[in-house]
Amino acid sequence: MIYFDERWITISWDEDLEAVVAEWKAFAESKELRAGLEAGLSLARKKMATRWLADTRRAPPSTQEDQQWTSQIWFPRAIAQGVRWMALVVPESAITRMSLRGIMTKVTSKDLVQEYFPDAATARTWLASMR
What predicted TM-score, i.e. pTM, was given to this entire model? Predict the structure, then answer.
């Protein structure tokens, strides 16, 4: 079920995985990036989601300010809401991989297990095994 669909991201609910799926598609300005993540958080709240699949293959690099917002504001809210497992499909762009690493190294909660995968199929298999 598609919940939020814009040119830069699609947020959907995967009934089989019982997971929020965020598929990045294109460059996003700061307000767009945040709107996409907030939409995902809203869906996670509605579905009481514990799993999240972030397909960042085509994600844009993020600014230092957005990295800080994501790691210090968004992630603590997602974890407090109950997200426990996050499967991340590694970005194709080296610059975006550095941005993602900049965010994820600051997410140190023991309440969130995060794993990285080369493709969405492998990420889905891992996420399905997390119960």
Answer: 0.94
